[in-house]
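Appendix B. Chain record.
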Amino acid sequence: MIHYVIAEVGMDMATLYQQIADKFLARLAESKDADAEKINQLRALLADGKKVKSDDFVKIFSAPLAVISNDPA
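Structure tokens predicted for this chain:
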């Protein structure tokens, strides 16, 4: 059904997926809890054009968060 609707409005699946990814990343970037580096990694992963695997997400989200310290030591 969705393929039919997409065909009717003249959109291909790649364009639809890109629009969804763009909106998702924009909302994620607005979040005060989101790590900018992880968002950049996600953006690069989704823009790559390759099929995304669950392991790709695990690599991004299991990496330690960037820690900013004001401790001079």
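Further analysis of this model is presented in Appendix C.
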